[in-house]
Amino acid sequence: MASSSSSVAESAQSYTTMDSGDVEAIGARCQLEYCNQLDFLPFRCESCKGKFCLDHRAEYAHKCPNEGAWAAARRRKELGIASATDASKQPLRAFLPETKCSYPQCKTSINTPRNPGVHCQTCNRMYCLKHRMLEEHDCNKLTPIGARPPSAAVFNTATQTEKARVAFARLKAWGREKQKDIKLPAAMTPKPSSNAARLIALNNLKKSAKGDDKIPVDKRVYLHVEAEAASTTSKFPRGEFFYSKEWTVGRVLDAAAKSLQVQNVNNRGGGEEERLRVFHVEGGRLLEFSEKVDAALVSGNTIVLLRGVGPSSPDLIQT
Q1: What is the pLDDT of residues 17-63, one digit of tens each?
Q2: What is the DSSP string of 28-59?
Q3: How many Å apart are CA 36 and CA 42, to the nearest integer?
C-alpha cells in the first residue's frame, strides 16, 4: 500500500526536479570574493579574463588587477603596432625601419605610427602621404629601382624590327625557290590553281599527315609544316601533320616543334630573339599564340617556324 501511495504522489507533480549541480552548470558565479552570485549570462572581463555578474562587470567594479590592459591593446592594434607578446601577427610596416620620404625636398620621417609610408609600385620607392601621388613626386621622370638600364635591354625594338624584315625577305625568296621545285606528274594535267589540283594535293596530304589519333577526323586541320633553316635548326626540315581545330596557335607551335625536333624555349621566359613564331605563308603574316586554329588556318595551308622575328606586327610585311 505504501508503494502505491508514493507512486500516486509522484504522478501528481507537474514539474521536474533538478539538482543544484545542474543549475550551476548552466551559468557561472561571479568571481568577486564577497559576491559569488550565480549568473546565467555572466560577463567576461577582457583584461583579467574573469567572469562577473551584471553589477561587477566593469573593471572598476571588481577592482581588476589589469585595469586598462584591454583598452591599451585596442589602441595599439588601431595604430598598427601589435602586442610584443604576439610578434607573429604584427603588420608588415611594423618591421620596416624608420626612414625619410624619397622625395628629395621632403624631410618627413615615414614608417612610423603617425606617418606610415606609401609604396609607389611604378618607381619602387617609399613616400609620405603628401607625396604619395604620381604627380607629386614626378614619377614619370624617375627610373624604377631595380629596373635594367635602357642600354642593357633584352630586346631592342628597332633591331628586332629589322630582323623581322630580313626574315620576311628570306621567306619570299624561300617561296620563290619552292615554286620552282614543284612539278606535277604528267598524268596530272590540271592547273595548279584549279580546284581539282587542290583536291588532289589535299588528299595526298591527308594520307601522309601524322598526328594524334585521338583527334576526331571532322575536327582535324591538315598542314604543311617547315622550319626555316636560316633562323632555326631542326632534325627534320619539313613534314605533314594534322592538328585539332579547337587548338590555339601556341599549342600547334609546341606540337610542330616537337615533331620536327626544333628547340623550343618559349615557355622558359627567354628573350624575344630566342622565341619561336608561326608564319602563315598563305596569309603572309605571323600568327598570334592565342589565335584559334579554325579561325586562322585551313587544311592544305603551310606554316613556317621562325626564330627571333619578334611579335606579330601588321606593318612588317611590305608589299
Answers
A1: 555 555 566 778 898 888 888 888 888 898 898 999 988 888 888 88
A2: EE--STTT--EESS-EE-TTT--EE-STT-ST
A3: 12
